[in-house]
């Protein structure tokens, strides 16, 4: 039996290509796993920073507490501050929801597969009458479309549209 050197080299080259593809698949899976952890940490840290900022700033904490209970009782400037606080929280949470939708954040057993770190204080704020009064009159511009749908759905409202 005579071995053809050209065919042997071609077979070895094909095996090397297959091995390279397998290596790339393994590498991509490892990179994706790292991205999941990294993005989860970034989003989680953003939410933690938001809560820390509010907790360590008496003015913000006071406005958030009073506004979430009775938005209408706030002075106009305080209503504006409450609006900014809620918008910043909504954007932080929406970043986490987007990351989860793209598979770069772990999902938990929350409602509708919601990541567990996106529930808790955020939903408690949405349950309060002042926050609901704010949402009923909030300008929807600059609030992510997905967040509007999510909040309307959570509050049992029909989709209110992007602008108000």
Polypeptide structure, described:
With 164 residues, the protein is mostly helical. The protein is 70% helix and 0% strand. The longest helix has 51 residues, at 5-55. It is elongated and about 95 Å long. The N and C termini lie far apart (83 Å). The model is unreliable at 109-113 (pLDDT under 50).
Q: What are the low-pLDDT stretches, counting only 5+ consecutive residues below 50? A: 109-113
Q: What is the distance, rounded to the nearest whole angstrom, between the alpha carbons of the first and last residues? A: 83 Å
Q: Which value, in Å, is the CA radius of gyration?
A: 25 Å
Question: What shape does the CA trace take?
Answer: elongated
Q: How much beta, percentage-wise?
A: under 5%
The largest sheet, given as strand count, sense and whether it forms a barrel, is:
none
Order of helices and strands: HHHHHH
When the domains are counted, the total is: 1
Question: Structural class given helices, strands, pairing?
Answer: mainly alpha
Q: Summarize this, please?
A:
This protein is an all-alpha fold and 164 residues long. It has helices at 5-55, 58-69, 76-101, 121-127, 129-137, 145-154. It has one domain (37-154).
Spell out the key features of this protein.
mainly alpha; 0% strand; 164 residues; 70% helix
Task: Provide the fold topology.
Layout: H1 5-55, H2 58-69, H3 76-101, H4 121-127, H5 129-137, H6 145-154
């Amino acid at each position: 039996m005579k071995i053809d050197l050209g065919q042997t080299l071609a077979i070895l080259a094909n095996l090397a290509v297959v091995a390279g593809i397998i290596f790339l698949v393994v590498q991509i899976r490892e990179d994706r796993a790292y991205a999941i952890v990294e993005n989860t940490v970034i989003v989680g840290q953003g939410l933690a920073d938001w809560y820390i900022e509010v907790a360590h700033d008496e003015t913000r904490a006071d406005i958030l507490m009073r506004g979430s209970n009775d938005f209408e009782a706030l002075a106009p400037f305080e209503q504006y501050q409450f609006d900014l606080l809620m918008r910043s929280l909504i954007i932080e949470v929406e970043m986490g929801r987007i990351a989860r939708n793209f598979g770069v954040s772990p999902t938990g057993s929350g409602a509708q597969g919601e990541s567990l770190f996106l529930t808790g204080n955020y939903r408690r704020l949405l349950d309060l009458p002042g926050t609901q009064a704010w949402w009923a009159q909030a300008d929807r511009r600059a609030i992510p479309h997905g967040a509007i749908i999510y909040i309307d759905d959570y509050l049992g409202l029909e989709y209110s549209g992007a602008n108000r």
